[in-house]
Design goal:
It contains 1 helix and 7 strands. The protein is mainly β. It has one domain. The longest helix has 4 residues.
Amino acid sequence: MPLMIQRARYEGPERRVHHVYVTRNTEYHVRKGVCVAVKQRSQAGFLPEHGALHMRLDGHVKVGTYLPLAGAPKLGTRLYFANDEGDILTSPVVAIVRPSKAVVATYPTDK
């Protein structure tokens, strides 16, 4: 009879630094609260230019409102990116995933 190991569910603070917020058409790759890559879901590679790149994810907005709320975005809310030059509001989030190490290794680097 094989030995079954049960893992305890981690209950501590969130330690992940990378998140991918998926909207209907776009993936926003965020590292430590800053957008580091953007990808159209219908295309293979990352976009070299997008307004959200290098912007801080400052919160989320409930659909039907325009008031940004603090805290981590949730399914069905819109991402709110901002910097000194302006802000960007996305369409609603349909999925939140953790990127693989292989995907993280392909993120564009600043030159």
